[in-house]
Amino acid sequence: QVQLTESGGGLVQAGGSLRLSCLASGRTFSSDSMNWFRQAPGKEREFVARISWSGSTTLYADSAKGRFTISKDNAKNTVYLQMNSLKPEDTAVYYCARRRSSGTYDSWGQGTQVTVSS
Fold it and tell me: In 3-state terms, the chain is what percent helix, strand and coil (to 5)?
């Protein structure tokens, strides 16, 4: 496992932007991908975005396409989620997670709260 620490959440008005960060400490592998999930009150945790270890491949949920951008800086062991044009329905706790080549998510951060006011 690796230790994942998210930061960058906060309160923002609709239409605003936030950039989340996820710092990974521990050994990572080129077959790993890094992911962002979110969980709104009373709802199940849902996938938001994924990036391969090299950064060359990304995947987004439909709700994130065109508004969110996932990126990473391997030198800093950090994954980012740039969120633009935020909507009240984006309000949730955002988590980063490591996905192994087997498809298993073996490491999760503690989450960072994002609140979008209308």
Answer: 5, 55, 40
CB 102 within 8 A of CB 43: no
- Best CA proximity match to 116, nearest among 49, 67, 54, 59: 67
Q: In what order do the strands lie in the sheet with 3-7?
A: 3-7, 18-25, 78-83, 68-73
Tokens 């592998």 correspond to what residue?
A: 29
Helix residue spans in 53-111 (DSSP H): none
What is the pLDDT averaged over residues 72-85?
Answer: 95
27 pLDDT above the threshold of 90 = no
- DSSP assigned state of 14: T
What tokens were used for 72?
A: 């990473």
pLDDT tens-place string over residues 34-52: 999 999 999 999 999 999 9
The one-letter code for the residue type at 95 is Y
Query: Would you give the DSSP letter of residue 69?
Result: E
